[in-house]
Write a structure and sequence with these properties.
Elements (H helix, E strand, L loop, with lengths): L4 H14 L12 H30 L4 H26 L5 H16 L15 H14 L2 H7 L1
Helix pairs in contact: 1-3, 2-3
């Protein structure tokens, strides 16, 4: 089922909050870099769009308003692109090798006393499910267990 752009962006925002921003995960998953870039774009691009629009219109004149608007809209689209990517990624099922790793990690955590919520006991987990499991691992498991996994 196809989601609307707004709901996919909202899911991307939620996924960005759920993903554990840990250095250990940065080389393995693209989420770390995408979330950092999207957060930067959310804070910087609206201001850059306004500055671009004002400066180009003042310096070049009113005949350049269409080009200035196009550049401003491009700057404003960058954070949206990051959120859309994150929203799409959140619902993407894990590939077979990551799925195997997820199941192994889940089983090791349960064997070490992890009280798993029902939503994480999936045979076909998504990246969002993986994010929740990893976040729980970093928050609820001891440091020795966490270091052993990476």
């Amino acid at each position: 089922m196809q989601k609307s752009l707004i709901s996919q962006m909202q899911l991307g925002r939620q996924y960005a909050k759920e993903w554990p921003m840990r250095k250990e995960l940065a080389p393995i998953f693209a989420e770390f870099r995408v979330i950092k870039a999207t957060e930067l774009a959310i804070s910087v691009m609206p201001l850059l769009a306004v500055i671009t629009l004002v400066l180009q219109t003042n310096w070049l004149g009113n005949q350049y308003v269409p080009q200035s608007l196009a550049i401003a809209f491009f700057f404003l689209s960058l954070p949206a692109q990051g959120l859309l990517w994150l929203g799409k990624r959140a619902d993407t099922p894990l590939n077979p090798s990551l799925n195997t790793w997820y199941q192994e990690l889940f089983n090791k955590m349960v064997a070490n006393g992890y009280d798993a919520p029902m939503q994480l006991q999936s045979r076909r987990p998504t990246y969002r499910t993986l994010a929740k499991l990893l976040k729980d691992m970093f928050e609820k498991m001891d440091k020795a267990f966490t270091k052993e996994q990476f």
